[in-house]
Amino acid sequence: MKKLHVFCGFMVVLSFLFCPVTSWALNDWTVIVFMSNDDDDGAIGSANSRNLNAMAMVGEQPGTKILVQDDRGPKDSYSGALRLSLEGRTWKTEAKLGEVNSGSPQALWDCLKWAATKHPAKKYALILNSHGSGVFSWRGTGSVSSSNPGAVNFDPDRFVSYDHTDNDCLTVFEVGAVLKAFAERLNNGRKLELLGLDACLPGGIEVLYQVREGCEILVASPDTTPIYGFPYRTIAQSLSDVTMSTEKFAEVIVRNCGSTMAGWRTARAQELVGALDNLAIQMLKAMDDTGRKFGLNGLASYGGKDRYWDLPKMLTSISNGYADFKGASNKQVIVQIAGEALESLKSALATSQGSMSVVWPTATEYSQWHAFYKALDFSGASHWDEMLDKWILGR
């Protein structure tokens, strides 16, 4: 009988050691805010101090946890990264990390490991809070200026987020790699429920497709955003509903931001990209038929530059027959396929509002960033890049 008791106790211990983390998680939601406040003028750090205070005023909600990795710049009272957890209405410092390169995928990975180990949950939301430049990244490994665009230097065993001290930023390739590793290594093969990109310009089809394997819902704006970013007070308040679905969480963020902010279902990314691929193939055929570029009307761009274009407006213009495909034998086919792509776009939208961009840069920019764009999963899965090659570069 004594041996049986020992054996049963041993099996209980094994069950705790090998059962999925989420089966005994204390939190219904763990929200991780990865703040890269290390900028030149301290503006974003000042804005995020207000955001931290706003969340603390609401306080911790039962069954949930809000975590922040706050990477501060040299002008702050503490220069370096802090790991904070909201305890009641007070931010508790769990770790002082010293100088951290928030533009490194390793820093993001270490932050996610801390969250999953110390504050495991049934559902996770990750918010990357910093400056942004859309799908293109200007600094660091794999950036547009790198000799190997799209490269990722990341080892999970031993990444929109600009760190001015280290002259680095997270590329979309790095974010995608870290989130995929999180699902495989820390979350029992389950995707992160929500990825929020609290930065300027990341709400594009290229970004959605790149992170499709790492999250269920992407929340981002294709346009520039205010310095205070997401509605952090409202986010903290919404956690009082521990049964909140991921789509409802996305709606909480979106309805308190500008009209372009949107939540997108990554499960529909493949269908949407397939529709845009069909459209790009027909656009290529039209240029072959006519020997000239087609014209587009009724468009709008984001960020004050002709680089990121409003995808819904583009598809609506084409499907309504406002584009100039004169002389192309497949003109009506293009109109029909653009309408089908617009329907795919609507089915991917998880929130009541929002828009999405697609890259169509100037010839100078596209020539400089060509290798980076070609390295994207979106370019590998569609003919959009080949269409841009012909329309912009004539090849």
Structure, explained:
Helix content is 41%, strand content 19%. The chain has helices at 2-18, 43-58, 105-118, 172-186, 205-210, 232-238, 246-254, 269-290, 311-319, 331-348, 363-375, 377-381, 384-393, and strands at residues 27-36, 64-72, 80-87, 90-98, 121-129, 162-163, 168-169, 192-198, 215-220, 262-265, 301-302, 308-310, 357-359. The chain has an 8-stranded mixed sheet, with helices on both faces. A 3-stranded antiparallel sheet has the order 11-12-13. A hairpin with a 4-residue loop joins strand 6 and strand 7. It starts with a helix and ends with a helix.
How many structural domains are formed by the residues? Answer: 2
The major pleated sheet works out as: 8 strands, mixed
Shape: globular
Low-confidence segments: 1-23, 159-163
Lateral arrangement of strands in the main beta sheet: 4-3-2-1-5-8-9-10
Could you list some keywords that capture this structure?
13 helices; 2 domains; 395 residues; disordered N terminus; 41% helix; Rossmann fold; eight-stranded mixed β-sheet
